[in-house]
Structure formats: structure tokens, C-alpha cells
Amino acid sequence: MQPEAALQFATGQLKKVREEIGKVIVGQQDVVDGVLICLLAGGHVLLEGVPGLGKTTLLRTLARVLQLKYSRIQFTPDLMPADIVGSMIIDTESGSKALRFQPGPIFAHLVLADEINRATPKTQSALLEAMQEHTVTSGTSTHELEAPFLVMATQNPIEMEGTYPLPEAQLDRFLMKILVKYPSRGDLGAIVERTIQKDEAQVSPVITRQEILDLRAICHQVLVAPHVQDHAIDLVMATQPDAGEGHELARKFIRYGSSPRGAQALVECGRVRALMHRRLQLSIEDIDAVAPAVLRHRIILNFDAHADGQTPETILDKIIPSVAVTAGSAR
Q1: Burial of 115 per CB tally in 10 Å (0-12, 13-18, 19+)
Q2: What's the number of CA atoms in the CB half-sphere (13 Å) around residue 306?
Q3: φ, ψ for residue 54, nearest 5 deg
Q4: CA distances (Å), 61 to each of 22, 34, 149, 178, in order?
Q5: With 70 as the cut, is the pLDDT of residue 161 above it?
Q6: Mean pLDDT (whole number) for 241-261
Q7: Which one of 48, 164, 293, 317 is CB 3.0 to 4.6 Å from 176, fit for a cystine?
Q8: In angstroms, how far is the first alpha carbon of the chain from the final one?
Q9: How far, in Å, CA of 177 to CA of 44, rounded?
Q10: Could you say which DSSP state residue 275 is in?
Q11: Is the pLDDT of residue 271 over 80?
Q12: 8 Å CB contact between 34 and 178
């Protein structure tokens, strides 16, 4: 497919998907775009927000629109790894006893890990292999997960009693961490208006699984200029307190900066955003736009930051613009 034809196909399909999701999800366009970016970039997404903001509804609607298999896992303290990946069972249907693998809910295209921080670390780790390798190992057998594969995990920021914070190694495997905020007054009015209507909004499938894989291939055609790649590296280096390029706030408030996965994620997510904006070349604007969601869960603050009331958002809000200014003046 020629570049112009590929661009027209991609933007047309993405427009149809966003419009169809809009029939159910009011507002929250940044969240919708973030989940689509992670799906097309081949990563996973962590949503943080209070209950009732439509996180579960979003993924269920996305599965209908994209014609993908959807499963939901409610994480609880008594959930076991086998409840996620599956287990070996005794099969007696053939007349003789034999062990057979019974796939768990992880075997789907879109997996909602609801309130992931309510499960024990042992159960949380059951997701690690699936998220990173797209495989599940049971006994001596390894089972492939069909592409596309997206884990959308949610966590509640207010009820910390009885929860197990995600370890840094698992957080790093999420391409983005998106904060789901309260709707505006106008959006809230639209939500209530839809609630009192007799007919529930219906969505239609607008894209197939193969077309999603085609869109992923088109994303890889988005060009990355050397200076834009350098800007992504500059951003990651600015979050590292021990690096010479580390920002002043990083040296003061950050204990550990972003890993190399952060630079990879900036480029991959930025390419999808460029495609959403009808461009086949990555820009510094794309990198800066996805940077907060890509980096906020990859930096670990020190004691001074907590004592001063700093959060990853307040620090990144100052680091990202300063890196953009420095990069622009240097080139």
C-alpha cells in the first residue's frame, strides 16, 4: 500500500472507531485515544480513577466496535494465578483419563484487569509473562496469545486499605498510565440525558481484527527523524537524577528515573498519535503530548518529594516543557 493510500485508510478507520465509541462514551477523549494508542502500539494501559467514570464500559465498547474477544478479570485478594492463565484438568470425555489445559480468561484480545491492585503480588505476577511475551506457560507447554492482545488494568486511587501496590517491574510493562478525571458539567449533563432515554445506545462493528493488524503495520511506516528521536532520549535522560542531562527537579525529587522502555514507548506511542493527526512523520509535539502518560509511572519519587507535596504530574509538568525549550535552542 502506497504511503498516501495507507494514511487515508488509517485515518478513515480510526475516525470511524472513535465516532462509534462516542455513541456510548461521553467525553474522555484523551482516555479513548490513549487506549487506542496502546492497542495499535502493541502495549498495555493502566487506568487510574475513582469508580463510575466508565473505565469498564470503555473496553467493553471497544471490543464490540473492533470485533475482538473480550474478557474481564475482577482482581480480589483470594484470586489465584490459575484463575487468570488457566490450569491443567483431567479430561475423561474420550473414555480414558488425560490431562488437558483449560485456558483462563487471559486468552482474549482485550483483557480488563479490574482493580488490579487488590490481588496479591503472586497473582499480579501471573500477568507479567503474558504482557511481555504474549505467551502463557503451563507445566512444560507454552501457549501463544493471539494478536492483538491488550491488557487494560484499572486501579482505584482512594481505597488503599487491603490493596497491594504494583511493583515497579510490573508498572514498567504498561505502555501508558492514564488518569481518568471527572467529566465536565456539559459531559455530565449528556451522561444523565442518555441515562433517562428509553433506548440504550447501540454500537456496530466497524473494523476487523485483520484491519487492526494492518493499522499496526502502517504505524511502523511513520518516519522518525534523528532530531525527534534525540528529543525522546533527552526527555528520558532529564528524569534521571544521576545523569549529566538530569533536570534540576530530577536531582532534587526523583529517586529513580525512567527506564529505556520509556524512550521506546515515547517513540511508539508518538507514531500512533502522528497517524491519528494525519501525518506519516513523528514530531516533537507528538512526543511531548504522550510524555506525561508514558513517564508518570516510570519515575520513583524520593522522600523529599513526598514531604514537599510533589507528584509525578507536578514534576513532569515542569520537566517536559524545559526539555523542549532546551532541545529547540540547541538545534
Answers
A1: middle
A2: 5
A3: 90, 20
A4: 10, 15, 16, 18
A5: no
A6: 86
A7: 293
A8: 35
A9: 9
A10: H
A11: yes
A12: yes
The residues near 156 (Cβ < 8 Å, ≥ 6 apart) are: 48, 49, 50, 51, 115, 117, 163
Kindly list the distances between the CA atom of residue 5 and the CA atoms of 163, 213, 222, 224, in Å, as whole numbers in the listed order. 49, 16, 13, 19
Q: Is 269 helix (H, G, I), strand (E, B) or coil?
A: helix
Helix ranges, 254-298 (H): 260-276, 284-295
C-alpha cell at position 58: 470503555
pLDDT interval class at 231 (50, 70, 90)? very high
Percent with pLDDT over 70 in the chain? 93
The CATH class of the 222-330 domain is mainly alpha
| Residue labelled with grid coordinates 474478557 | 71
Q: Please give the single-letter amino acid code of residue 56.
A: T
DSSP reduced 3-state for 56: helix
Query: What CATH class does 26-197 carry?
Result: alpha beta
* Cβ neighbours of residue 14 closer than 8 Å, sequence gap 6 or more: 36, 215, 275, 276
Above 70 in pLDDT, residue 236?
A: yes
Find, among 93, 73, 91, the residue nearest to 82 by Cα.
73
Match 510533589 to its residue by C-alpha cell.
Answer: 310
Task: State how far the alpha carbon of 148 is from the alpha carbons of 14, 29, 44, in Å.
Answer: 16, 22, 11
Average pLDDT over residues 247-253: 87
Encoded amino acid at 285, one letter: E
Averaged over 249-276, what is the pLDDT?
Answer: 90
* CA torsion, ordered 79, 85, 89, 92, to nearest 10 deg: 130
Domains of the chain: which residue ranges? Answer: 26-197, 222-330
